[in-house]
Automatic annotation (TrEMBL):
<dbReference type="InterPro" id="IPR036265">
    <property type="entry name" value="HIT-like_sf"/>
</dbReference>
<feature type="domain" description="HIT">
    <location>
        <begin position="38"/>
        <end position="107"/>
    </location>
</feature>
<protein>
    <submittedName>
        <fullName>HIT family protein</fullName>
    </submittedName>
</protein>
<dbReference type="InterPro" id="IPR011146">
    <property type="entry name" value="HIT-like"/>
</dbReference>
<dbReference type="InterPro" id="IPR026026">
    <property type="entry name" value="HIT_Hint"/>
</dbReference>
<dbReference type="Pfam" id="PF01230">
    <property type="entry name" value="HIT"/>
</dbReference>
Length: 142
């Protein structure tokens, strides 16, 4: 399967807001104002694990993870960045990048399955997406 066959999992579609399109991945913002939480989804159909990616895409994914993590830390200063590819519920390959602060709603535990998501206000969501998009431009990432 190719990128042309790529479809975003309906659960990811429902739980996130699109932020940017990078050469390999779609960058999504989790709709949970408790955490600054981005998700990278490689546009590679049929992949459930990082090792399922072709070598060139695996290398590109790590580069995009590093770039997006740096941008997230710039926009949402944090004590720790959590980066992981779990996929126990959504099987489609995706990588979580979560800016964690000591004392946040789930600290020190994982964010997954911890309480109910709190929606962003429309102004806060627009502001955060705008800040992320400005920093995820190709010229900034080069």
């Amino acid at each position: 399967m190719s990128a042309a066959d790529f479809l975003l999992d309906p659960r990811l579609q429902a739980d996130t807001r699109h932020v940017a399109t990078l050469p390999l991945c779609e960058v999504l913002l989790m709709k949970d104002a408790r955490f600054a939480w981005l998700i990278l989804v490689p546009r590679q159909a049929g992949c459930t694990e990082i090792l399922d990616l072709p070598d060139y895409a695996r290398d590109a994914l790590w580069g995009e993870i590093n770039q997006v993590a740096a941008v997230l830390r710039e926009v949402a200063p944090c004590d720790k960045l959590n980066i992981g590819a779990l996929g126990n519920i959504v099987r489609q390959l995706h990588v979580h990048i979560v800016a964690r602060k000591q004392g946040d709603a789930a600290w020190p535990g994982p964010v997954w399955g911890n309480g109910a998501a709190m929606p962003y206000s429309s102004d806060a969501l627009s502001s955060l997406v705008h800040a992320l998009r400005q920093r995820l431009t190709p010229s900034r990432l080069a």
